[in-house]
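Complex 214.
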Amino acid sequence: MTDHATPRPDTPTARTAYWEGIHHDKDIDGVSWWQSVPGLSLSLVDRAGLARDEPIIDVGAGWSTLVDHLVERGYHDLSAIDLSATALQTVRDRLGPAGKDITLTVADVLDLHTGRTYALWHDRAVYHFLTEPEERTDYLASLQRTLRPGGRLVVATFGPDGPTTCSGLPIIRYTHTELARQFPGFRLVDTAGEDHVTPWGTTQQFTAVLMQRR
Ligand SMILES: C[S@@+](CC[C@H](N)C(=O)[O-])C[C@H]1O[C@@H](n2cnc3c(N)ncnc32)[C@H](O)[C@@H]1O
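Predicted structure with S-adenosylmethionine bound:
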């Protein structure tokens, strides 16, 4: 995270260039959101109680270790998408043979067409970048195309006492209630939160919800 917000990349090309640049220029633990164990996400995925063969997608996965931990838990239909090819290559290299069945795809969550559906959609620290209503509408359309009826949604954003920018970009902070309201057609199953400790020792408040599509 930087102190000064940079101009928002608000086209698909600009977004890709921005996020590819971030991952190209930084070390794995050089980004504020890095965590070796994604405890908040894993707790909500665990609470979703999926069978091990049900498909899970992590959107805006970056080089998160979520898929590594899901492989360890025995899930074997895993997909992750991100705008940054570099971030996904880092995941591919890190996982080695353990990741041979994981689908990693460069794609924009605001225009996502995977050609299949999933039982769980996970997003940590992506939705909060959508400061424009039309971006949130596009995200919802991707979610509705991609998540099965009855499927689970796990979303984590900065909380009301969290930072006002992330990776140099403005974000929207959410309470649990505000976050749950973003997803019409979903029922709230559970809430969680954490004070994420960045690699340089500061804390960032996260809000997270587990929801189920009706
Ligand atoms: C703050 S990072 C969070 C990464 C990861 N979810 C985690 O918790 O470690 C945001 C990630 O979302 C990706 N991203 C941002 N906008 C995106 C979009 N429109 N479509 C897909 N990925 C996007 C970025 O490349 C970056 O990897």
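Residues 85 and 106 are 6 Å apart (CA to CA).
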